[in-house]
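Batch job 17 of 40 flagged for manual review because the log was empty.
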Amino acid sequence: MAISRDDLDQHGLIIGVSPERFRAVAMPLLFDHLDAQCEGTIAVNRQARIVWINDKYAQKVGISDPRSALGKEVEEVLPASRLREVVESGQPSMLDLMAFGDEHFVVTRIPLRDADGTLVGALGFVLFDRARHLKPLMAKYNQLQSQLLATQHELAKARRARYTIAGFIGASAAASEVKRQARRAAQLDATVLLRGETGTGKEL
C-alpha cells in the first residue's frame, strides 16, 4: 500500500488518509529505517525464540549464518538479552546497556503486537556498539544529579534550626540539668512539649 500524489496537499502533507492506512504505510518504512541505521536488529516470538536476526547483528555476535540462530531461545545467542522480559511484561525498554563478552551494546527493546493489539513477540535494536556514545548523555545526567544534590544541601541548611544547644549560656546546676535533658530528648524519636514564656529559649 503506497501513498500517491493525490494524497498530498500543496505543502506535501498527507491529507485524506485514515490512521489505519497511514500506520500501514509508515510502520514498514520506520522499521526499514531503524534496521538500516542501527548496528543490529533481532526479533523474537511470544516464546522468546529468535524468528529473525539481520546480518549485521549476526556478524557482531559471531554468527556466520543468521539462519542458524532461528528457533533458538534468545538467551542461547545473547546470554544477557532481556527481550524475554519485554515479551512477558509487554513493556518497552527504551535505552539499556547489554553486555556481550567484553563489549557493551546500547540497545532498545519494544514489544511487537499484531493488528488486534495481541502481543506476539519483541524487537531489539542495537543503537550503538560502543558504550562511549552515551558519554555526553551520562555527563549531562551527572551534572544534573550534582545540581540536585547541591540544591538539596542548601534546602537542608535553610531548614536547619537557627539555634543550637551550644548557644545556651549558663553553668548553674539548673542550666546544666536543662541541657542534659535537652540532649537526652534529642536522641529520641519522640514529641517533646516545651512550655515557657517568650524568650526563655524554647527553640534550642
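Reviewer: the log was empty due to a logging misconfiguration, but the result itself is present. The chain has four domains: 1-37, 38-129, 133-160, 161-204. Unflagging and moving on to job 18.
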